[in-house]
Write a structure and sequence with these properties.
Length: 169
């Protein structure tokens, strides 16, 4: 595949350029009348659409929940700006990413704890792993991708696991 084809193939995602960051930041700040830094679904949709990501309602709800680092139930401008690389990958692979994340986050609390992941990896099905292999994989993933070492994978950590292609497909 040539470079040109590769560029065209990825045109659905927005370009995470300095310019895109500035556009997003400018829109969000101009909307933030009371200076709280909170961003609602409409505002999120508007700023993503301005840089070429037409997010569905499901995307918007999912991102609002999973990028909420401080756990106050809302997105702040800073949480968005700090996680634009995650949003960029979500723009491209959102459907697959959400399906994969939800498969592992069975209790729906927005995080994948190690035992949860182990249980899914060794669960009955076409991709069932031996317990020893699954433990080895989990150790490897924990070492490389649980960046804040809290014993669970957030969505931003999970997108890197997904992109690494280390999970059984
Ligand atoms: Ca928040
Ligand atoms: Ca969970
Ligand atoms: Ca973590």
């Amino acid at each position: 595949m040539s470079d040109v084809e590769d560029m065209e193939g990825k045109s659905q995602g927005f370009l995470l350029s300095y310019e895109a960051r500035r556009v997003i930041e400018d829109i969000l700040k101009s909307k933030d009348i009371d200076g709280s830094g909170d961003v609602d679904l409409d505002e999120l949709e508007e700023c993503l659409s301005a840089v070429g990501f037409q997010a569905s309602f499901e995307d918007l709800k999912f991102l609002t929940k999973h990028l909420d680092k401080n756990g106050d139930g809302k997105l702040q401008i800073k949480e968005i700006i700090d996680q634009l690389d995650v949003i960029n990958l979500h723009a491209e692979y959102g459907v697959e990413l959400m399906a994969a994340f939800k498969k592992f986050d069975q209790n729906g609390d927005g995080y994948i704890r190690y035992p949860q992941m182990l249980k899914i990896l060794t669960g009955k099905g076409p991709h069932q792993m031996e317990v020893a292999d699954a433990r080895k994989l989990l150790n490897d993933l924990a070492k490389s991708y649980d960046t804040d070492r809290d014993g669970k994978f957030s969505y931003s950590e999970f997108v890197k696991i997904f992109m690494s292609d280390k999970l059984p497909k």
